[in-house]
C-alpha cells in the first residue's frame, strides 16, 4: 500500500507538471434579462492550472432553430482536489503556453471521469461553435 501511495503521489506531481495552461471554471446559477434576451448568470467555481487534450475524433453538427453548430469533444485535466466541478460547469481557458489558439476557448463539462488511482482529474468537455 505504501509503495502504491508513493507512486500515486509521484504520478500526480508528474501530471501536474504538464499543466501549463490556466482555466477558469464557472457555474450557471440563474438567468437575467438583458434587452429582450435571457442570458445565464455565472458564479465562479475557481481558477486552476490545466491541460487540454483532444478526446478522439468526435464532431457533430446538430441543427437548432435553423442554425447548424459544430460540437467537438475534448478532455481538460486539472489537479486532483480542484473543485468541486459539476456536469454543466463552464471551463474557459484564460492562459495558454504552447497553443495561443486555446486562450479564450470555452467548454461545457459533459462528464466527470472518476477512477480509483487517478493522477489528474479528467473532465470530459464539449466545445460548441457556430
Commentary on this structure:
The chain has 130 residues and is mainly beta. The protein has a single domain (2-129), classed as Thrombin, subunit H. 12% of the residues lie in helices and 57% in strands. It contains 1 helix and 8 strands, in the order αββββββββ. Strands 1-2-5-8-7-6 form a 6-stranded antiparallel beta barrel. The longest helix has 16 residues, at 2-17. The model has no long low-confidence stretch (mean pLDDT 90).
Write the layout of secondary structure elements.
Elements: H1 2-17, E1 21-34, E2 37-60, E3 63-64, E4 67-68, E5 70-78, E6 90-95, E7 106-113, E8 121-129
Antiparallel strand pairs: 1-2, 1-6, 2-5, 3-4, 5-8, 6-7, 7-8
Structural key phrases:
130 residues, Thrombin, subunit H, six-stranded antiparallel barrel, two-stranded antiparallel sheet, 8 strands
Biggest β-sheet description: 6 strands, antiparallel, barrel
CATH class: Mainly Beta
Please list the strands of the largest sheet in the order they lie side by side: 1-2-5-8-7-6
Rg calculated over all Cα atoms: 17 Å
Alpha plus pi helix count: 1
Give the averaged pLDDT, no decimals. 90
Helix coverage percent: 10-25%
CATH architecture heading: Beta Barrel
The structural domain count equals: 1
